[in-house]
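Example record for the data management plan.
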Amino acid sequence: MGSSFSSGVSRTNLKSNGIHWQGNVSTPSGTNNRSQGIEWQRHIRYYSYASTGNLDLDISDLQKHINQDRFEMLYLYKTPLSEYQWTNTIFFHVYVIFYTNTPEGGFWWSLEKTGQSLILQMSRDIEDVKDRLEGGRRVSEGSSWYWEPQFIIRDSSWETFETLYKFIIVDKDQLNIRYNFAEENCKNFAKIVFDRIATNKNWNYII
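Corresponding structural encoding:
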């Protein structure tokens, strides 16, 4: 459950905090790379989906969002580790979706940990961040009769984007924590994020 963040912290500066924000080209449609990660990369990969549905790699507006946006709702969703799994009881990939309402309108975001890095996505349309990862579908269309992104839990939130950013980068030092399938995985990361900014709930899962 979220708690108030200490006051008096200077505004986040993406250009001076030493963190590598990488805007990547999209992977081919119907693919993702969470199972292909070989070496942990100390950066956050950021993707913005333009109104055309294509990827926009410009991070110029991200500074403003982190410094000004406040969350209203957050959700956890899951997809398969393999598209041919027969059960979703234990083995699945988890990601966080949250909604911010700004003077420019509402924005949907997804945040997750893969085998290579942390990934942040933004769109006006929830379907972009819920169903897509780095430009490709999270679950390849036509290759799975059982799986689609599945809802797990939701809650309200009143935390700021800046609070979450500093919690992940400074307090939890997540950029220096390599992915580990047994412990430091997508589930653990999603739980850390959800429990920190959710107003009323915590997420409990089977390891």
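Summary line stored alongside the record: Confidence is low (pLDDT under 50) at residues 1-12, 15-20, 23-37.
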